[in-house]
Design goal:
eight-stranded parallel β-sheet
């Protein structure tokens, strides 16, 4: 959480983290309007978007459960003075976020148009392709600090592979993004061709929370409240971590790097402890796993830090970070969303200079090869 930033930071306010020049692994750009995509979207799909709009896996449009007090799940100070939604004005983003917090690189995570949840897979692929091109034209080419991801919908595997190959030839994207809420758990074989290409191209697989898989976001059904819905992000990521590990994705693709984004990391120890315990009891069921789940997690998975669980006692957060592994954590702010983590105040526990450097910069630089 942060205070409102409406002025440049004084030198005495700049923390060590910003002097490091941070790598922010979760920055959300937004379309000012869907017209932004017209130059990248074929006429056929422009017409489809105008006349039919999104056809999602859930039966309702505009179901994002953001609170009315935080429209578009955004900070109240993040609405650009030039109009448009938060995250849609590059100059304002530079002034409010990139420059004052000394962001060396920011990784773009696009959520517009429910791009991962389109029921019409061809329309979804057209939107993903347009947004992939829009990321470069509107953001990365105008500010080299901002790095684009290849967004693909994994339920159309052939379409996803074609888009990955197209973007890989351009050579400016730093990861492949899929949704944690697909039709099936992410460990299923139907998705393996995407993982195979990611490994072959040496591009990390980014999995950002959000989207609708057509299933309730919790194992107990549909939640009633936003605060309840927000809890389900961690549950979703934990379920997908188990699916990827137990179905053998790291074993099959030993060089694949997987980054979970905006799911936090407070839940990791108990989830992995349980996987290890059950693996010992039922390992004959999964002979394709040659090692304990925790060993795969510590070698193949990284986790962005936001939202950071904040226990009352700093030593508990310290113990959590040590168990997960300081090498496994990548700083993320989630700008411009309401639960933005300000790098000046994000970790309420002592960290050495070397540890801060790992979390705020060098871990991401190693994963993404900046």
């Amino acid at each position: 959480m942060s205070e409102v930033i409406d002025r440049p930071l004084r030198d005495d306010e700049k923390p060590t983290a910003t002097r490091l020049r941070i790598v922010d692994c979760d920055v959300h750009p937004s379309l000012r309007s869907t017209d932004d995509l017209n130059e990248f979207l074929p006429k056929r799909w422009q017409q489809h978007l105008r006349e039919y709009g999104s056809h999602l896996r859930t039966p309702y449009l505009f179901t994002t459960p953001y609170p009315r007090s935080s429209p578009l799940i955004a900070r109240r100070d993040a609405w650009p003075p030039t109009g448009g939604p938060p995250g849609s004005d590059l100059a304002f983003m530079q002034k409010q976020h990139l420059d004052p917090l000394d962001v060396e690189f920011g990784i773009l995570q696009v959520l517009d148009l429910f791009i991962f949840s389109q029921q019409n897979l061809e329309f979804g692929a057209a939107i993903q392709r347009a947004i992939n091109d829009w990321q470069l034209a509107f953001w990365s080419h105008r500010d080299p600090r901002l790095k684009a991801s290849i967004l693909v919908g994994q339920d159309g595997v052939d379409l996803a592979i074609a888009e990955i190959e197209r973007c890989a030839k351009i050579g400016e994207y730093i990861q492949i993004n899929v949704s944690p809420r697909a039709n099936e758990p992410l460990g299923r074989r139907r998705y393996w061709p995407i993982y195979e290409r990611a490994q072959a191209l040496d591009l990390p697989l980014g999995i950002h929370v959000g989207g609708y898989g057509g299933h309730a976001p919790t194992g107990g059904g549909w939640p009633s409240y936003y605060v309840e819905e927000h809890q389900s992000n961690a549950h979703t990521i934990a379920a997908q971590l188990a699916s990827l590990v137990i179905e053998g994705v790291p074993e099959r693709f030993p060089k694949l790097k997987i980054v979970f984004i905006e799911g936090g990391f407070g839940w990791i120890p108990s989830a992995v402890w349980r996987m290890d315990q059950h693996f010992e009891r039922f390992r004959s069921e999964v002979p394709h796993l040659r090692r304990k789940p925790s060993e795969y997690v510590r070698e193949h998975f990284w986790f962005t830090t936001q939202p950071i669980d904040e226990p009352d006692e700093a030593r508990h957060l310290r113990a959590l970070i040590e168990w997960v592994g300081i090498d496994r954590l990548l700083f993320s702010s989630d700008y411009p969303h309401w639960d933005f983590d300000d790098p000046r105040f994000a970790f309420k526990t002592p960290l050495t200079e070397a540890e801060r450097k790992k979390i705020f910069s060098s871990n991401a630089r190693a994963v993404y090869k900046f």
